[in-house]
Amino acid sequence: MGRAEARTAAQQLLAADVGGTYARLGLVDIAGEAIAVGFHRRYACAEFPGLAAILRRFREELAAGAGEAYPTVCVVAIAGVLQGDMLLNSNLPWQVSLAEARAEAGIEHLHLINDFEALAWALPKIPHAQMQMLGSGDGNGLRLPALLLGPGTGLGAALVIDQGGRPGVQPSEAGQAGLVANTPLELDVVRLLQARFGHVASERLFSGPGLMNLYQALCELRGVPPRLHAPSDLVDAADKGRDLLAAECAALFCRWLGSFAGDLAITFRARSVCLAGGLTGHLQHYLRQGGFMQRFLDKGVLSDTLREVPVVTIEHGQLGLIGAAAWHAARARGDA
C-alpha cells in the first residue's frame, strides 16, 4: 500500500482547536483507536479577520511546508455553543457563521464542536503518566464519569461518561451558572461583581479575565489602586514575591476553584476530576498549596466520598486536535 492509500485508510482530516486567544491546526490521521497529529501550526486569533482566514492560511502553509493535499473534512473545536448557523461566544475576536466559514474556506465537510467537548473526547487517550496528581484518590488512572474543568480565556466544563464500554461526552455550560460564595470575603467580592456585571457567572471569576476581576475587587476592598493589568503579570508578581495582594489573589482563586470543582463533582457523581486550561499550568504552585484540595473536600457528609476521587492536572497542548479527531471517529461509529 502506498503512502496516499495508507493515509486514505487512516481517515485523514484537518483538526483545529480555536480558543479565545490562539488557534491550533493540524493534519490528523485516525487508524482504529490510534490518532496521530502530523503537520501543525498555531495562530493568534486576533491577527485574522475570521475563522475562514485561519483555515486558508493553514492550507497555504500545508501546501508549502508539507506538500500535502487539503482534506475535505475539517473538525473545529471552538469556544462557544452553535445555535443554528451562528456560534455563540463572547471570548472570540470575531463572529462565526458555519455556512460562511465553510464557503469561504472551501471545505466541503466542516464541523464545529465545543472546544471543551473536544478536550473531553481526548481525555481517555491521555496516558496516565502524563497526568499530574493534585490530590485525593488512589492514583490508579481515569475512572468514569470524569469531570473536566478548564479555566482559560473562559471556563470550560464537560463530563466523560461510559457508554456501554466506550467513552462518551456530555458537554455543559457550567461556567455560566451563578458564582457561589463560601466565605465573608467571597461574599464581598460577589457583591462588587454583581454591581459591575449584574448576573455573576462562575466564568466571571474562574478564567484569565476572571482572575483580574478578582484582583480588582480585592484592590477595591483593600483600598489600593490596581497596578497589575494582565493574568500573566499577576502570576509573575505573585511567584516572585513582588506583590502580596497578587499572591493573596492567586491563592484565593485556587481555593474558590476547589469549592466549585467539588460542587460539580458531587452534582455529576464524578469518579475522577481533571483540570486543564491555560491558567491551570500557570497556577500549579498555588493549586498545590493545599487550599484547592481543602475546599474541594469540604462538602459535609460527602467529604469522605470525595476523598476517593483522584484530582489531576493535564497539559492542553495538542489535546484539542486529538479530541476533535476522536469526536469525528466516534461520530462515524455512531457513538457521538
Describe this structure in words.
The structure is a single chain. The chain is of the alpha/beta class and 336 residues long. It has two domains: 130 residues, Nucleotidyltransferase, domain 5, CATH 3.30.420.40; 140 residues, Hexokinase, domain 1. The chain has 13 helices and 13 strands. A six-stranded mixed beta sheet has the order 8-13-12-9-10-11, sandwiched between helices. The protein has a five-stranded mixed beta sheet with strand order 3-2-1-4-7, sandwiched between helices. Helix 2 runs parallel beside helix 3 and helix 4 packs across helix 13. The chain is globular.
Main attributes?
336 residues, single chain, 13 helices, Nucleotidyltransferase, domain 5, Hexokinase, domain 1, disordered N terminus, alpha/beta, six-stranded mixed beta sheet
Helix/strand-derived class?
alpha/beta
What is the C-alpha radius of gyration, as a whole number of Å?
A: 21 Å
Mean residue pLDDT: 89
- Unreliable spans are 1-9
Topology:
Layout: H1 3-9, E1 13-18, E2 22-31, E3 34-44, H2 51-65, E4 73-78, E5 81-83, E6 86-88, H3 98-105, E7 109-114, H4 115-122, E8 132-135, E9 146-151, E10 155-163, E11 166-171, H5 184-197, H6 208-222, H7 231-239, H8 244-268, E12 272-275, H9 278-282, H10 284-287, H11 291-297, H12 303-306, E13 311-313, H13 319-333
Parallel strand pairs: 1-4, 4-7, 9-12, 12-13
Antiparallel strand pairs: 1-2, 2-3, 5-6, 8-13, 9-10, 10-11
